[in-house]
Amino acid sequence: MLSIRSHVLAGLLALAFLVLANSALAAETILTGKVLSTVMRTEPMPFHAIIDEICVKPGDAVKKGAPLLRFHLQSEAERVLQKEITRGSDTEDLRGKILELEREQARMEAQCKKNRQLVASGLGSRQALARQEKEVDAIIERIALLRKTIKKAEDTFAARLKELEKFYRVPLTEGMELPESSLIIPSPIDGYVLSVASIFPGSLLPQGAQPIVVGPLDPMLIQVPVYEGELSDISEGKTARVEIPSLGNKKFEAKVTEISWVSNDMNVDKPSYFTVKLMVPNPKFELKPGFKAVVRF
Question: What is the pTM assigned to this prediction?
Answer without folding.
Answer: 0.71
